Amino acid sequence: MKQYLMLLFLSLAATAFSQTAGDVLKYSYLNPGGTARYIGAGSAFGALGAEFGAISQNPAGLAMYRTNELTVTPSLRFAGTDATLGGSTLDESKTNFRFDNLGLVFNTTPMSGKWKTFNVGIGFNQQTNFNQGIYYSGNAPGTILNNWYNNAKAVLAGGGTTEDFDPFTGKLANLTGAIYGNTAANLTYDFSNTPNAVIEHSQSITQSGTMNEMVLSLAGNYDEKLLLGATVGIPFVRYRFSSEYQENDAGTAAVDSFDNLSYTEFLNTDGYGVNIKFGVIYRVSQAVRIGAHIHSPTWLSLTDDYNATFKYAFTGNDGVPRNFTESSGNAVIDYKLTTPWRAGISGAVLIQKQGFLSAEVEWVDYSANKYDFTSDVGNAQNQLDEQRENSAIQRLYEPRMNIRVGGELALDEFRLRGGINLLGKPRAEDDGFNMGYTAGAGVRSESFFLDLGLRIGSGTGSVIPYADGFEVNTKNYVTNILMTIGFKF
Q1: Looking at the domain 21-143+191-488, which fold is it?
Q2: In the Cβ-directed half-sphere of 453, how many Cα atoms lie within 13 Å?
Q3: Phi, then psi, of 393 in degrees rounded to 5
Q4: What are φ and ψ of residue 155, in 5° steps?
Q5: pLDDT of 10 over the 80 cut
Q6: 60-119, pLDDT tens digit by residue?
């Protein structure tokens, strides 16, 4: 397991070899997509229903449907990051096209009795989008080689050889001449006398992919008062990460012999999981509704496919520049992750036929994320890695609240919507919320509807390119534009 930690806080977290405490947020710090109406009204549909995006939140709302319905939601995502190192701020942006939703609802109205509807829903809703780009450059003290050297020296001091160095770090450094020597006594590197030299650092990071949740839902409406629903969710994960980290001493000559280095990493993570969601809505009156939901943990099975390439350039004692490049080859690792339980309550007020106001509060304990590295290969090292990362998760994260507020104004067939999302920051050291603002509009008829939705989010975070390294402050901006085409039949 690699020890590098890199955290980006908005709705995502990135690492280079994915089984670290920071990576659990990729799959548990969610900012769900869905239909344009769901997004436009702040995703606050927990007490309302008749909206396919809400099936992944409170499945009881499925019972509100009175007709069969088909929805399709293409979307555009614009993600930007400002990264600051040493007083220099650089921005990076990325655009991608995705489908946030595909849904089909089958409505059944019993002939008699107090059960007014039994409805089935099947489709998918996007749970998170990983697409983001980051670039920074500036001067800072230290080098990625400090940890590599210390780890390699510990291996030799423990009776190992250079063949026992970490294949993704120390071994690459040894093969390229960045770390040289074959005993603990004579092992050295160019930074041995200047481990905290101020040199130029830069990094380009690209992430892509999504976690989409296929849903199979069933809900019933009892006597127009009590709505009950359940969803089986099957999330599918596709995550891609690439990073090129560089150090350069050409301008300052702060380190003897060293010229520059480049460390490139590629990670593909694929997987799937399962969860169960239960929900209830009670109609206090025609105008007032309250709801509640509870989500089981998501049990994920994930596979990482990782490789690294290291290039080292230096000037020898003879004054001749040299450079060497080595690659690690691919490592494929299977592991499991259990995300936290979720629970929430919601309320809504319908304003005659003029629209609604709605709010929802959700509780998530991010410290309850838990890795399982031993179910496939139960060796002692995997067990130690599992205990270390799970302990770090409990130390780094705390329970948080997510708040969603939204509304809709109905003007005959035309609709206007708006909302606010407040997502609690998971880290124990962080207070407050990451904010999101939503808006939307739509046109509805008896058999067809067209909706547009907009969500703008922002947040702050940091990037730490290697353990005990310098910190890069980030400001993250994300804009999602959705369009839902729907048919009732």
Answers
A1: Porin (2.40.160)
A2: 34
A3: -60, -45
A4: -65, -45
A5: no
A6: 999 999 999 999 999 999 999 999 998 889 999 999 999 999 999 999 988 778 999 999
